[in-house]
Amino acid sequence: MAGVVYRAVGGPAVDEALAGTIVPRNPTYITFNNIKNMSPFEVQDLLQLPRTPTHWVDFDTLLLIDDLRIPAGRWNEITTLEPIVITFPEWGRGGGTQAITDKPIKVRDFGALSDEGRK
Fold first, then answer.
1. What CA–CA distance (Å, rounded) separates 52 from 50?
2. What does pTM read for this prediction?
3. DSSP letters along 80-116, please?
4. What residue numbers bound the domain in which 57 lies?
5. Residue 119 pLDDT exceeds 80
6. What is the DSSP letter of 64?
7. Phi and psi (nearest 5°) for 104?
8. Cβ distance 46 to 93 under 8 Å?
9. Residue 6 lies inside a defined structural domain of this protein
10. Which of these, 3, 73, 95, 113, is most buried using a 10 Å CB contact count?
11. Could you tell me which residues come within 8 angstroms of residue 1 by beta carbon, excluding any fewer than 6 positions away?
12. pLDDT tens, 42-77?
């Protein structure tokens, strides 16, 4: 059985999500953490993102299973693999899971991140 994974999105990726497919970002970063009920700032902190996301998408890993891999740290600039986000402390605490793919992501569900975050 396939799992559900997530991607934090903002800017032009929101329009892509609305259209049903996130185009590859060479690579595209994804997380196994459920970010649906988090605030934009909680997601940014968890995933050490340089920009604040506005939305989330979820999708099925089965469509990406042959391409999913663990990235190296600092956007693949160092050789240490980074399954747990830690190498950009200037952008947040980290601690979220991550993987990468070069395939398009077929959106299963999509929504706005809540300003209220986790309760």
1. 7
2. 0.91
3. SB-SB--S-GGG-----B-EEESS-EE-SEEEEPPTT
4. 14-94+102-107
5. no
6. T
7. -65, 150
8. yes
9. no
10. 113
11. none
12. 999 999 999 999 999 999 989 899 999 999 999 899
